[in-house]
Amino acid sequence: KVVCVTGASGYIASWLVKFLLQRGYTVRASVRNPSDPKKTNHLTSLDGANQRLQLFKADLLEEGSFDSALEGCEGVFHTASPFYHDVKDPEAELLNPAVKGTLNVLNACAKFKSIKRVVLTSSIAAVAYSRKPRTPDVVVDETWFSDPEFLKESKLWYALSKTLAEDAAWKFAKEKGIDMVTINPAMVIGPLLQPTLNTSAAAVLNLINGAQTFTNATFGWVNVKDVANSHIQAFEIPSASGRYCLVETVAHYSEIVRNLRELYPALQLPEKSSDDKPYVPTYQVSKVKAKTLGIEFVPLKDSLKETVESLKEKNFVS
Ligand code: NDP
Fold first, then answer.
1. 121 lines ligand 1 (CB under 6 A)
2. HEC sequence for 57-93
3. CA distance 269 to 228
4. pLDDT at residue number 318
5. Which of 83, 82, 66, 84 is nearest to 29 (CA)?
6. How far apart are CA 165 and CA 131, in angstroms?
7. Neighbours of 318 (CB within 10 A)
8. What does residue 118 show for φ and ψ, rounded to 5 degrees?
């Protein structure tokens, strides 16, 4: 079976490509710059890559860019989307590539009858910011949808990019009759296959690289291997549909630091929060739908250990 992974050099996508090759798929991997070894060497050296990995050059903002990669595919995994927090021009750097890029990919999908299903990598950021209160007894689930106005007011540009992109994708998919499933993960951690540092692994690296304080924030956390596997399950299980929240645990940064201290007592870790406000409360995220994909969820502490070991091995830890 032939499938395409967009943004294949990224953190989540690299694991997805690895698992797809392991399962015998022929993988068309779209990257912006196929001649950059930092973006491709970790893919072309995967088991099965010699026989079944093909690189394609494609950019989210170039219309028609994905046509040649998608023609003849049975499945499409659209993971490409910028994930940064330090942006100067949110529209150019985040919103346009996320929204126009997603429609660009779906437009190509609509052209080819061979494509049976599209799995879109959305985010819990498109789910959890709905203005409803989040407290320890509240359970967030797939029926929530983030409110774009709230995200604009709060200047949460990355979350806005994912919310607008998912919303536009559902409208387009319904209009064109595309079978689409979305995966909505929280902060993804675990081992890195790529040689460069991605935003969610950087959140852990910052804590162990001499930060004086931890952010007063509470996020869901999930292992990258569970995220990659859930994409494949969402493609392979015929009855899979709609959205799938993927969160192993919701935890405040203080809790992440506590786990790291237990794992690595010798590490210098931040002792206090970045502000004097009460800690942002935790909440729950339903695992009911994710479990129907057969996902067991690597526990948070194991995921943190895998992340730190990988960051050390790749010499990111100073
Ligand atoms: P990475 O930064 O590792 O990967 C992002 C990928 O998007 C890269 O391959 C990048 O390509 C590609 N990309 C960005 N802009 C463009 C563009 N204009 N044209 C083509 N490709 C582009 O991030 P992750 O693996 O973490 O993220 C992958 C997906 O998962 C994203 O959709 C993200 O929103 C989503 N996600 C991530 C979470 C996390 O915690 N990591 C949580 C929830 C969702 P290039 O290599 O060329 O820069």
1. yes
2. ECCCCCCCCCHHHHCCCCEEEECCCCCCCCCCCHHHH
3. 30
4. 86
5. 66
6. 19
7. 7
8. -115, 130
Paired with 218 in beta bridges are: 252
Is the distance from the beta carbon of residue 95 to the nearest atom of ligand 1 less than 6 Å? Answer: no
Which is nearest to 244 in space by CA: 175, 300, 187, 291?
291
- Report the alpha-carbon distance of residue 26 to residue 49 in Å, rounded: 9
| 66, 30 Cβ separation under 8 angstroms | yes
Residues 158, 215: Cα–Cα separation, whole Å? 17
Q: Does residue 282 contact residue 218 with C-beta atoms inside 8 Å?
A: yes
CA 293 from chain centre, in angstroms, equals 17
pLDDT < 70 regions, the chain: none
Strands 2-6, 242-246: pairing kind: unpaired
Please state whether beta strands 249-252 and 218-223 pair in parallel, antiparallel, or not at all (unpaired): antiparallel
Contacts (Cβ under 8 Å, ≥6 apart) of 58: 6, 30, 31, 32, 65, 66, 69
Ligand 1 centroid distance, CA of 199 (Å): 9
- Coil, strand or helix: which one is 245? strand
- Amino acid letter at 248? E
Residue 81 alpha carbon to ligand 1 centre in Å? 4
Q: What is the pLDDT of residue 256?
A: 98
Rg (CA), the chain: 19
> Rounded to an integer, what distance in angstroms lies between the CA atom of residue 301 and that of residue 283?
18
26-31 and 2-6 beta bridge pairing:
parallel
- What atom in ligand 1 is closest to the CA of residue 14? 25
Q: Which ipTM score applies to this complex?
A: 0.99
